[in-house]
Fold these 4 entries.
Entry 1:
Amino acid sequence: MHSPPGLNAAVEAWIDHIIAAGGQTIIMSDGPDSLPTAEAVITPRKLNKRQRQASTAFSNEDLETTPRPQLSYRHQRRDSVSEVQSTSTADTSGTPRSGRSSPRKKEIALRRTLDWPVARVNITELKSIPPMLESLAIDLKRIGDGRQSLIPDIFRESMGADAGVLDQPHPDWFYTAQDRQEELRDAHHQMQRICRNSLKCQDKMEYEPAWNDLVHCRVLEEALEGRAEVDFRNITLCRTLKIFHDDDPALRENKVDYGIFLQPTPREDDGLAERLADLGSENIDITHFTLSDFAPTPLAISIETKTLQANAMEGSVQLANWVRAHFRQLARVVERRRHDPSYQLPILPIIYVYGSIWRVDFAHRYESRTMVYEGICVGNTHTVYGCYQVCAAVRRLAAWVKDDFRKWWSRTAELPTQTQA
């Protein structure tokens, strides 16, 4: 049955009018009597004042609760590179990645684990310090408190001219320099450069890789220059060996940024280089991870760096979990060399760099717990004197690696029968 020509023309004209006016699609019942007028479709119904307020509130609430993508594709690409160069468990904007435990949850897991749980103590609250740690801790505290003369006095006048009225250098910062002035000037220029880079990184809110390249790496280079027995390496991509993993899935994997290593050479008299090579030939791990060149160089000090955009707890949690794996590896060496079960492991310094501030903590296995003594801030790279402080602290730690840590490895790498002989 065909519709009357007049009706078809009316419907087509009405549809054209709706399309031209941008009206909404409607559902009609059958029959010509159900057709609305064009005005009824495209003319909105007026709202009273109360209805308009309710509509506005609903729209605002909808905007606030609507999920939005956190990063653009360009930012995702840049952050994927940063993840390779950084050990952070959060992305470079400071937003935690999904699928990973938060620092707080990991800290709780560290405290509740049955396998050498972590207990933290502020080192300044200790009434007595373990003897093997006392001298080192006191020296670092003196450096951090600004009670050490670290800058040659040939720079006192220029530093005073550069400083503000309320930020003049303290007389106690300087010592009398008699010789090697050209070498001292080169070192001072490097300190100034590190300080400028540190301020620039904060001003530009740089990501962690930029801080590592422009500031932290240069501090370590300057501090350890010329020290053949001790060196540092970037170990961001080194993963803990499975044999030293924690049983708890939340604590199974961890990484840090840098390591300071003992570098024994075959020319030395104590034969440590040869004994370390023997350990390797017996499949005894020298570190709890694999270096890119498989070098038999024991890890002495672990360093984790974070920007101020990261959760402050995150670096401390990473270091604590990492050092627990380090202790497992050291205990494994003691066991494989058939030493007595009561054989004492060393106290290990760990360094946490948060923004521009360097802090030295100490980890120690004591009475079935992993004790972490926290709280010696040794310098701030936002000032030239702070750069001198950090370098002085790293050099003092390097001296500990060369002496105390080396002695522990020389004694431990031997079989008990050889030691007694």
Entry 2:
Amino acid sequence: MPRHGVSPRHSHPRSGWEQGLDSFLGPPRLLWMGLGLALVLALALPDSLVLWAPAAAHPLPARGHPARFNAIVTQLRNAFGWWNLTCPLCKGLFTAINFGLKKEPNVARVGSVAIKLCKLLKIAPPTVCQSAVQLFEDDMVEVWTRSVLSPSEACGLLLGSTCGHWDIFSSWNISLPATPKPLPKPPSPPAPGAPISRILFLTDLHWDHDYLEGTDPNCADPLCCRRGSGLPPTSQPGAGYWGEYSKCDLPLRTLESLLSGLGPAGPFDMVYWTGDIPAHDVWQQSRQDQLRALTTITALVRKFLGPVPVYPAVGNHESTPVNGFPPPFIEGNHSSRWLYEAMAKAWEPWLPAEALRTLRIGGFYALSPRPGLRLISLNMNFCSRENFWLLINSTDPAGQLQWLVGELQAAEDRGDKVHIIGHIPPGHCLKSWSWNYYRIVARYENTLAGQFFGHTHVDEFEVFYDEETLSRPLAVAFLAPSATTYISLNPVSPPSLQVTASTK
């Protein structure tokens, strides 16, 4: 029985071009499913693959999902001129996608169609289309079949509010304790001569194992200066020995030079390391690649920083596929256990047993680096707009924010101060997650002494204001610049922080 007004028996006359398309892409059911995978892939990858950003533009500031899809919809209309992408047809299309993905057992066949569509629509260079679809297809199909994305929501996203309501990331709230909030206390300067702790802040190192001097820094791929980038035109210089001002990451020797030169800036009492270790070649990364980056750079940090304790946070590039961090209820081969277990093993010299326990569960932890100070490392991938696993359920993934409330309340009860570290800044998160985090910061403003994030690759800060008047600043989050040059950035020496010993 036809659904949403789309009848398979009374479609428009089929042109020779359409019949040729069927021959090229396969049966209609595979066409719809392949299109679904190509669209979801386009949603998941733009920040990483820089599909629509000019080479000189910085790709990381967040853009809304509708804006990302506008380019794809335009390409669809240009490529498939016979489509009249009306609201009823859109809903029929996504009904077919949902039905087809639940009935088609062969993920590889769906991926084959998605590759052809990716190339046809010029979503990415052909080799990137091939590798990216093959890398993402298993997880994407799994997410799609388990998600609550309805045809109305998908078409509201594609065509606007007149065709449906895009709100699969519905509102939710964590619970705050009944304990009354203490009166706000303005920060007071430390007493003269108070002891000072020095903290090194590392973020976004992005080591490219395949960096190769002399290669093309402006290749067609999303990441250049590497094996496979080819040689530059004779009139243009190739990638430099230490790095390049282009869409390139860093060779190991540059990171070694950076870390080995930290001595004069020290000594440091501890290190905050807020993630993103691997390179931006996200269309071709394997789990082995990610684990090699994790262990190599962890060993490098330990080599040059010696006995100084290092407190890491999980970046969005640590996993593969990129941004893919399923909540703990996803089990089996799709889970993130392979990554969290490797992190626990690599970081065991720095973290106590309880921190390792929660790291293995959800990639977050808390510890006390010294009396009076509690450090909380959040897995900000559970707030990410690019984490496609949250299409299944985005309500406080892993219960992390509720756990954060418990940690902050316990710290308040003890009279401790708290530092929070993470990768993605809270202002770049899903709306409901970001709002709940804002509420938590406002409630525990007296306890929360600092927040430290990375991800944007530039030197920034985010200011939090009181909920009542939105005029009284109550907290600030510091966003450190990247070590990598990606994209066309100046590599920076890691900033250091000075923290007084007076925490009460």
Entry 3:
Amino acid sequence: MLLFGIVSAFLMLGGDTLQQSISQLLDVMTAHSKWLYIGIYIINFIFLFWLGCSHYGHIRLGQPNEKPEYNDFQWGSMVFATGIDASILMLSTTDPLQYLQNPPFGAKPFSAEAYRYANVCGQFHWGPMAWMIFATATVAIGYALYVKNLRVQRLSAAIDLLEGPQPYKKIIRKLIDFTVVFGIMGGIGSSIGMEIPVISKVLSTMTGLNDTIWLKLALFIILLVLFTLTVYAGLDKGIKKLSAWHIYTAIGFLLLVLLIGPTFKLIGAEGRDVFHLFGNFGRLSLNQTGAHSAFAQHETLFYWGWWLSYMPVMGLFIARISRGRTIRQVLLGMATYGAFSCMSFYAVLGGYALFLQRSGQIDLVHLLNTQGQAAVIAAVITTLPFKIIMLAIFCLSCFIFLATTISSSAFIVSSFTSLELKIGEQPNRWNRMAWVIIFILFSLGIVLVGSFQTIQAVCVIAGFPLIFVCALLLVSIFHAVHDGEIPLKLKKKKLLIF
């Protein structure tokens, strides 16, 4: 905890020099390490597709006849709300505009072909391949918890290759636990650092307040109070309620934009986007988007690092609420509630932004290039009727998104850093609240450093060591389901003999 506090202070004091150094590091990693990110995602997706379709998909995370602890809607809302944050509201609007001027597959900027592909890459980056990286940790931890009946307080406990008292295994387990916390800090810090400027800009547009660093600091204080109250309430009382509230506000906001905007054009455009997405899924997976599409390739690396950084916290959280579900139900649930829900944001918000740009109502691309992402969000919302109400709903959605993500992350990280917890025992509340404060300070440091490229670099760096953790988890899943099947076969043979 002290180490991350020092890093937070370093970010706050780093300034332009630190920003340049981080950007240079991102360029080096993009040039030399992108094949590792692409490779682990492809291997992970193919393996889990096989696992879900095979007879192993029937394995229940719990007793054979055990029923799920949460109903489908409760489970799905917690998965969706915890797996994403307010960044989906921002990026689903601005990503298509970036691809419109930097199109993949050799299309010319702002051409008809560029409009066809503008919303495809973003939906790929938030689609099934991305969500399946969470499923790896979820299945590994859920199997260890509810099938093998092991105590899994940390992600390293779900890796069977590291079981045992040998000193070198203990060292590797400690290293993995540190890597996990490092990744979570990078992912959470990047999310808040990306979203606070957007909320600040929207509030400025709505209230007339100046969009200054003092407004951003005020938002950090409000979030700190909100996060602290949620974490203090615990999992069921705090996070579960926030998840339900989030689903209602998010769906309500999307429906309002869909119904107020060009409804049939948005629906028709999404049908074409899905067609192009599946038609180009192989090329997108291999990051082969054309010789002159460096932007799309760079974005894939950023997203894959970001999703990897969230893998441990999401795996531990979803496994915790998935007792009684089969492996197949977990995988399908994450693909539907998670991936397709995220794609709906791109369909509505991204589709509406492209409609405004193409119809000439507002030059959002120019606004993005001159004033940044926050200005684009505010401009898009102000084109809607009842703009003050829509701005207020947007801000409310952002706060609930952030509170849900940060609260659940603090809950998980505090579990990692606690001493051995008894079965059913929750981490100490003061420990959880201390991590909330660290999250806020780290995120404030990222905001002070500035630039979206800094956020991208933090995500890529945070996700890199988790590539190897993901590989170990895949091996552990295969060992677990294969070795667990052998006693079952022997038991069936004995029954047949007698």
Entry 4:
Amino acid sequence: MLSQIVLASLAASAASAASIQGTKSSYLANEEDQSAIFPFLAGAAPYFPYPLGENYYKINTSIPETCTLKQVQVMARHGERYPGTSEGNKLIKLYNTKFANLSKTELADNPYFNFLVDPTYQFFLQNNASLELLTTTEDSLTGALNIHAGELTALNFGEAFTKKYKDLIGDTLPVFTSSNSRVYETAKYFSSIINKYLGTTINLQVLNELEKTGGNSLTPSETCDVWDFPVHQDIVDAMDTSYLDNLAFRLNNATEGLNLTSSDANMLFDWCAYEIDVSGYSPICNIFTQEELVLNAFSDDLSSFYSDGPGNPLVKSVGSVFFNSTVSLLKNPPKEYSAYIGFTHDVNIQHMMAAVGLFDTDELMDSKFDYRNTVYKKSWITPMGARVILENYDCGNSSYVRYVVNDAVVPIQDCNEGPGFSCELNDFYKYAEDRLSNITAFGSACNITNLPTYQSFYWDYQNVNYTAPIAVQSY
């Protein structure tokens, strides 16, 4: 029923897109599902569920029988977007200087770039007007045919959330979002489904991410002026990046007039990911070997581990703002609502997860590729549209919590013997206390003296009414 609401709202635009597109262009005629490569595209690719493979136990995400939901907490990333200003302008320059003027005759039989001679192919960034923005069915090159538009990801998440947690949603519900445009639009699309399906009045609260507001923020790292980004740069720099040299050589050797550097080759992964976000499909993705995709993912995991992940001690301090709120919401929940929903950026979710410790082995990552790296994979944690959900449910006389990360239950290490592999609530409090006791407090770590060091917006939004201006540029 609810799916019909989403689909019906897109039917008219889909028909319009079909009429505009006319006959499907040849480079799209044999379009294949590219979702298998999403985990290798450094979090820039469309949303995908946390990819538990055959070697993992897949846990049912349904609330265990005989248990009753008590509370849900959500921290979500915005949906699929256009590239940021810096990376987008670099991609436009790359295309215009290295690809736009290649010989069409030579490209006709090129094994990698023959799609460039298709008269219907359009590079997904014709200018920089849309950089930083959420992709929608209106501005996508393929219109409503783009199944990976950020708008649809938000609507689909709203649908799944409403179905599962409807009993926790009342007549009114505050939804919190940072003031960035793409984050705000994601929250708005998500909320529209709750309103349509349940008739709930949504109260969007916008927190300023461009001003220093201390810990009372969905982007607390903005206030941390002592940011060390990243630590262990020597380990990051020691990674063997010859795969980029080899990629550039292979493409140059097959394409007369092409003169890609290793830095250019590195940007092709962004071209691939963001073109899927914007158009729903990218022919450039077909140039990569499996080894190149794997090493691209590992390179991003390594740098992210030491910049925004558990390898950076300061990140855990920043993330403790979120983790402390998790505990406070469980111990002292606001009386008027039981679903606590925030929308922000990928790095903020990474900071939170570094504090929580779901993907932290207390060991440093090495610069040498290790195929057994099964714990910290940034793109698995924060793809476009990522969502980390903490469920709190009562079973009998006891209460339990568990994390659901991108539609997969991820149990807490050594605290998962409750129903649905959950953690008994008092044991979770002990886990959080032990974890946070080994993390320097946010205020101390970031030298904050005259600003709040904790999140109060979940409790005081009715009195404060957060109405920050919406901005395209992120912090």
